[in-house]
Amino acid sequence: MRVVSGIQPTGNLHLGNYLGAIRQWVDMQDRAESLFFLADLHALTVVIDPRELASNTIEMAATLIAAGIDPDRAILFNQARVPAHAELCWLLQGTARMGWLNRMTQWKDKAGKNREGASVGLFTYPVLQAADVLAYQATHVPVGDDQKQHLELARDIATKFNQDFGVELFTLPEPFISPAAPRVMSLRDGSAKMSKSDPSDASRINLVDSDDVMAGKFRKARTDAEPLPAEMAGLAERPEARNLVTIYAALAGTGGDAVLAEFAGQGFGQFKPALADLAIATLGPIRDRMVRLLDDRDHVAVTLEKGAERARTLAGPTLLAAQKAMGLQV
Ligand code: ATP
Ligand code: MG
Predict the structure, then answer these.
(1) What is the DSSP track for 221-271?
(2) What CATH class does 2-182+297-325 carry?
(3) Is 306 in the active site?
(4) Is 109 annotated for ligand binding?
(5) Which of 57, 112, 221, 323 could disulfide-link to 328, CB 3.0 to 4.6 Å?
(6) For residue range 65-82, what is the model confidence (pLDDT) as tens digits?
(7) Strand partners of residue 77
(8) Minimum-distance ligand to the CA of 7?
(9) pTM here?
(10) In the chain, where are the structural domains located?
(11) Does residue 243 line the site of ligand 1, with CB under 6 A?
């Protein structure tokens, strides 16, 4: 089993990234050969500030290490330092079809009405994602449900490439959907997911937030005036309340019904402080470790470079085989 997953070094990591992705990565590194990367090439699909991108990459790597990714067990690197990602992406652009990419909901969401002004990279982003996993012959890709469609596309690209060139080169990656990985919603709007790119900082708990900031954001989180019911079924029409209970359950490592068994009949005046305490107990130590790691940014950079070296070694043979299959090598 080989697992590959990436995260964009844009903005701050938030509670959704932690519960939905990073915590699963930490579990994964003991069970599978794991490659985790900072997707700095993906970040180029939107307007970036080069200095910010470089520092974000280091900061995010430090956050991942602080959250429990062990760079000796997992291979941790930034994508740009492994040229096979971009090279294979180009090779796969001949295989991917416009129609396939046009159907991607993330493209539609992110480009919005401004398709003409969107970068070409934003459109071809899922092809780079396909290259990210196919370059390593990943068997499994941990995906939140916002990424299922892109993994399906990677499988389609792999299948068509193998057929078109009469090779059995690319492994078809399976989705790995952890039942313990919730979809965390915005604290301001229960119908939108918590996101780095949400302009409202109050919509998310950042992993770098101080204890007071976290507590304040939970206190101000949008809710309703009803007390909590005894079961999750009672929250079907209350997305904001459901989100807070889901977050509590995920942090506590239990289910929503178990949380409600404890808080049934209580209002948010009691629930929110309990939730804040739990979040602070989990995320506070991660933040403090991250701050210590960032005292020596060069050390983090060296760690990433060592990971990139290992990743280049793994991706090399697949890239070469793809080139041969396409007549690029005599
Ligand atoms: P952006 O708004 O820039 O897309 P993002 O917050 O969605 O940022 P990504 O870098 O796209 O973050 O996603 C990194 C990982 O975190 C992915 O595995 C994704 O599925 C997961 N993830 C992102 N947001 C959430 C969320 N709200 N709940 C659960 N998982 C999430
Ligand atoms: Mg996203």
Answers:
(1) S---SSPP-SSGGGGTT-HHHHHHHHHHHHHHTS-HHHHHHHHTT--HHHH
(2) alpha beta
(3) no
(4) no
(5) 323
(6) 999 999 999 999 999 999
(7) 37
(8) 1
(9) 0.92
(10) 2-182+297-325, 201-291
(11) no
